Amino acid sequence: MKLAIVGATGAVGHELLRVLEQSTLKFSELQLYASPRSAGSTLNFKGQELVVQVMPEGAIPADVILASAGGSISKEKAPLWVKGGSLVIDNSSAFRYNPAIPLVVPEINGEAALKHQGIIANPNCTTAIAAVAVYPIHREYGVKRMIVSTYQATSGAGAKGMQELEDQTRRVLNGEQATNDVFAHPIPFNLIPHIDSFQDNGYTKEEMKVVWETHKIFGDDSFPVSCTAVRIPTMRAHSEAITLELERPADPEAVRELLRRSPGVKVVDDPAQKLYPMPLTSSGQYDVEVGRIRSSLVFDGGLELFVSGDQLLKGAALNAVQIAEYLQEKGALNEKASV
Fold first, then answer.
1. Cα–Cα dist 81/167, whole Å
2. Is it the case that residue 159 has pLDDT exceeding 90?
3. What are the beta bridge partners of residue 140?
4. Are 89 and 66 in contact (CB under 8 A)?
5. For residues 148 and 223, is the Cβ–Cβ distance under 8 A?
6. Which residues pair with 192 in a beta bridge?
7. Could you write out the three-class secondary structure of the chain?
8. How does residue 158 score in pLDDT terms, banded at 50, 70 and 90?
9. Cα distance from N-terminal residue to C-terminal residue, the chain
């Protein structure tokens, strides 16, 4: 099986290479593609230096393409790649809301990936982190309402976002005025309740992504979801405070035990020992940390919880590779590769 990464030199592209080094995915060839300015550079994979190529105009000679070069490129190129015989696992928002294209978190709805017609969408990073933690609770107790407040790292805006945080923090510490290019306002020592564009309903698109994608991944739009998305001055790992009203009352200890048995989740919940989810501990980790699990003071039988997950991993690169692993385990990639 031939595998390709489109957008290999970006933040998610680098994480894809790291995840693939530890992955069970079997492939015979790995191709790297990026913009013309990156062509000819090399990236290390398992001790080998692989040359980055310019993305071709038409088809890519690969069985599976992990695409992370942005929505506009995916919208234009992915249909051409599929026409050329490739399966595209797309990390952008280009196809997430197309009802004919599966939006997949393998721990939740992996079987949806088997119904693809050439393209599978990877969810928004914020949604993926919340979904892994909330879905087991929804399955057991039934979510009636879901309220999310996010604390999103600068890596959500890619390598340029992280660089802006680093550069501008250095300016402030040197007594200079911080400036901004990637973010709407200077990010050092600040919080910005504005991620993506504002919509007619007063929510941002980032906030609405959590609403739309949670419903699609769960296969259930019967419960309302509300989100406030906030950019914070950390490098990586998104955190979220989640409030749930439930159909059936939930005991916090029972929920902890449920989540300990759930894939993709690590329960970190011992306040007496000062143990709870944090970007410091969830960065670089595959599992989403879940803690501060407690009964809601607002909703009878409801829950409050706090989660933190590396959005470059579970929110992007890891989830994409896990989709490919799932398909290969089911024999779907072997069949595709032999076409």
1. 38
2. no
3. none
4. yes
5. no
6. 231
7. CEEEEECCCCHHHHHHHHHHHHCCCCCCEEEEEECHHHCCCEEEECCEEEEEEECCCCCCCCCEEEECCCHHHHHHHHHHHHHCCCEEEECCCCCCCCCCCCECCHHHHHHHHHHCCCEEECCCHHHHHHHHHHHHHHHHHCEEEEEEEEEECHHHHCHHHHHHHHHHHHHHHCCCCCCCCCCCCCCCCCCECCCCCECCCCCEHHHHHHHHHHHHHHCCCCCCEEEECCECCCCCCEEEEEEEEECCCCCHHHHHHHHHCCCCEEECCEHHHCECCCHHHHCCCCCEEEEEEEECCCCCCCEEEEEEECCCHHHHHHHHHHHHHHHHHCCHHHHHHCC
8. confident
9. 11
Report the catalytic residues. 125, 238
Number of Cβ within 10 Å of residue 98's Cβ equals 11
Residue 288 forms beta bridges with which residues?
Answer: 265
pLDDT (0 to 100) of residue 333: 86
Residue 334 pLDDT class (50, 70, 90 cuts): low
Instruction: Count the neighbouring beta carbons within 10 Å of the beta carbon of residue 286.
Output: 15
pTM: 0.94
In angstroms, rounded to a whole number, what is the distance separating the alpha carbons of residues 44 and 328? 24
Environment class of residue 242 by beta-carbon count within 10 Å: exposed (0-12), middle (13-18) or buried (19+)? buried
